[in-house]
Known about the structure:
By secondary structure, the chain is an alpha/beta fold. Helix content is 30%, strand content 25%. It has 3 domains: 5-141 and 263-325, FAD/NAD(P)-binding domain; 150-260, 3-Layer(bba) Sandwich (FAD/NAD(P)-binding domain), CATH 3.50.50; 340-452, FAD/NAD-linked reductase, C-terminal dimerisation domain (Enolase-like, domain 1, 2-Layer Sandwich). It is built from 12 helices and 23 strands.
Amino acid sequence: MSYDYDLFVIGAGSGGVRASRIAAGLGAKVAVAEDLYLGGTCVNVGCVPKKLFVYGSHFAEEFEAAAGFGWTVGETSFDWPTLRDNKTKEIERLNGIYDNMLKNAGVEIIHGRGTIVDAHTVAVGDKQYTAERILVAVGGWPMVPDIAGKEHIISSNEVFYLDEFPKRVIVVGGGYIAVEFAGIFQGYGSETHLLYRGDMFLRGFDDDIREFTASEMRKKGVDLQFNTNVTEIEKQADGSLLVSLTNGSTLEVDAVMYATGRKSKTENLGLENTAVELTAKGSIVVNEDFQTAEPSIYAVGDVIDRMQLTPVALAEGMALARNLYSEKKDHKVDYDFIATAVFCQPNIGTVGYTEAQAKEKYGSVAVYKSEFKHMKHTLSGLNERTFMKLLVDQASDRVVGCHMVGADAGEVVQGLAVAIKAGATKADFDSTIGIHPTAAEEFVTMREPAYIL
């Protein structure tokens, strides 16, 4: 049978763009349909604008720290429209780059929402396109609970485009986005409350990291309220929001941001017209080759909910395209020892297993810890501290976990992740001569374990 395309991709986010470009480069005829913006969540309402906001939120603290180094900083002020609009210009520039990348690779861009008609047909508007294979890479979407006053809630989709910056804000949630935005709001001068329904935020991270981060955020002025949730939001006559909490108290704020998770964007996609299966959470079920129960349909990225990280979606899209269209068919994505960072203040960088996971997997584990004041803060006058942790499998001496809270933790751990992925042992760390004076050298000078599990 003859098809319009070899591969039709629904969604031009990280995974979809990477798969499209690689497939086209390998000779496939490819089209990609996108109804929102090129680059997906990461470029438009995720990693990129968030990191730009994080950079800016550090300046108030830097102005304060400058005095200890002899600088006199005059009166300062923050102008939200300048940041917001400069950010938007940068995102629009990146949208153009993605457009050029796809076109230069020979990929046809179709603007509109792609819906699946059958195993080999996609409709966009009133047109239908046939393809030998269909790739679903539509990503995820923020979840907002059905509570009284939900119409007043903003999510990570809206927060980058606010007309006014809130002087008082509640962030609800306990994951990456919630913790990062609590630091962003606080850094720009908002009175910031972070509410989380559980005992401690950042579930899935090492417990020492979670507790240390909570302590540092409190020191910086963020009001952390655990085991707390919102029951109702009421708009007042002056435009403020009166927020009722499960503990019986209320908070009056200017904005309420929910970052309580994201769900796969599979609604109204036409999957019911195929044999594609979904999990209870609505994510697409795929095998190790990213193939669904419908043999001609594949899925990658946040929509399959394996690890909701941009580099993971990129790796999945690349592996899929190469397996489908290159001579070599054994490309796999290894999900072990994937490094990640939380750009809160201070940053978190982590790779490998948590202490609890390492104990369960390896049995006997040596735990190395170090907590100290960064050299910068011996003069800055700031009370920020740094924490580092290594987990070592006793049987093999392999470093199986590396965790850090501190300035530039993501940058530090990215380098160490290469060594840990390659199987570096504690002896390798010990024999490595550090760069002095840096905080990172602490990772190669921790000689004695704090304890052995």
